[in-house]
């Protein structure tokens, strides 16, 4: 079957062939990779299984969640092994795209030209899942607004926008990597509240290196305080 797909793929798209044969694309590509790399390490095989789980389920998992799924499929290693493989794969990916993709599109000449908005989430001991929306001005590298909520809703987006507008002018463009359907809902909420929005542009790599130097310490510090129960949703302020 795999040989047939490989042979016919010159005429017909692999996606179409897989649908006709009722074969997941991931299964074909994994088999193709095995043929190209007959001798693979345990880490490479584990990474392949992790990628297959992600493709099958269509979502991302924490290492601990992947470990539990892998155990049901006969995995004999430890959760630390899963973590190391994921971290190594992520580092290799970041090394390839960092210079040429991550820093593209962030050129500015003054404040309020370009903002980014993102939503992070963190499990806490005492407050359940906590969601945090943050807005950053790319030119000043300053956090211009943020909001917290115990549920993922458009209120996070709207509240962060409100706080930003109370201190700063409307930017020329707002970058985000949030899902398009969610953004449409947020736009409707802003319209109902008479909040004007700039053009919103989806951007996979939301921060360049300089922005990351600002946003990562803030998010990490906030998440650690919330996770350990050393702060409340109302107690964290923008410094």
Secondary-structure map with pairings?
Layout: H1 2-8, H2 14-20, H3 25-36, H4 42-57, H5 63-72, H6 79-102, E1 114-124, E2 128-137, E3 142-149, H7 154-165, E4 173-176, H8 180-192, E5 200-202, H9 209-227
Parallel strand pairs: 1-4, 4-5
Antiparallel strand pairs: 1-2, 2-3
Helix pairs in contact: 4-6, 5-6, 7-8
Description:
By secondary structure, the chain is α/β, with parallel strands linked by helices. Helix content is 50%, strand content 15%. It has 9 helices and 5 strands, in the order H-H-H-H-H-H-E-E-E-H-E-H-E-H. The protein has a 5-stranded mixed sheet with strand order 3-2-1-4-5, with helices on both faces. Helix 8 (180-192) links the parallel strand 4 (173-176) and strand 5 (200-202). Helix 7 (154-165) crosses helix 8 (180-192). The protein is globular, with a radius of gyration of 22 Å. The termini are far apart. The model has no long low-confidence stretch (mean pLDDT 78).
Provide keyphrases for this structure.
239 residues, 50% helix, 5 strands
């Amino acid at each position: 079957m795999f040989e047939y797909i490989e042979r016919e793929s010159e005429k017909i798209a692999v996606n179409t062939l897989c649908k006709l044969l009722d074969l997941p694309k991931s299964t074909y590509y994994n088999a193709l990779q095995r043929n190209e790399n007959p001798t693979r390490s345990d880490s490479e095989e584990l990474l392949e299984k992790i990628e297959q789980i992600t493709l099958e389920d269509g979502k991302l998992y924490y290492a601990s969640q992947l470990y539990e799924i892998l155990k049901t499929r006969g995995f004999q290693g430890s959760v630390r092994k899963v973590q190391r493989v994921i971290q190594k794969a992520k580092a290799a990916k970041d090394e390839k795209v960092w210079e040429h993709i991550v820093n593209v599109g962030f050129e500015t000449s003054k404040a309020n030209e370009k903002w980014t908005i993102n939503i992070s989430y963190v499990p806490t001991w005492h407050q359940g899942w906590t969601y945090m929306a943050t807005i950053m001005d790319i030119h000043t590298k300053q956090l211009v607004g943020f909001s917290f909520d115990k549920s993922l809703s458009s209120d996070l987006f709207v509240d962060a926008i409100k706080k930003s507008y109370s201190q700063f002018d409307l930017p020329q463009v707002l970058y985000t990597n949030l899902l398009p359907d969610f953004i449409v809902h947020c736009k409707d909420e802003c319209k109902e509240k008479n909040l004007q929005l700039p053009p919103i542009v989806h951007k996979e790599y939301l921060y360049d290196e300089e922005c990351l130097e600002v946003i990562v310490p803030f998010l990490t510090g906030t998440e650690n305080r919330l996770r350990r129960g050393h702060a409340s949703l109302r107690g964290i302020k923008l410094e």
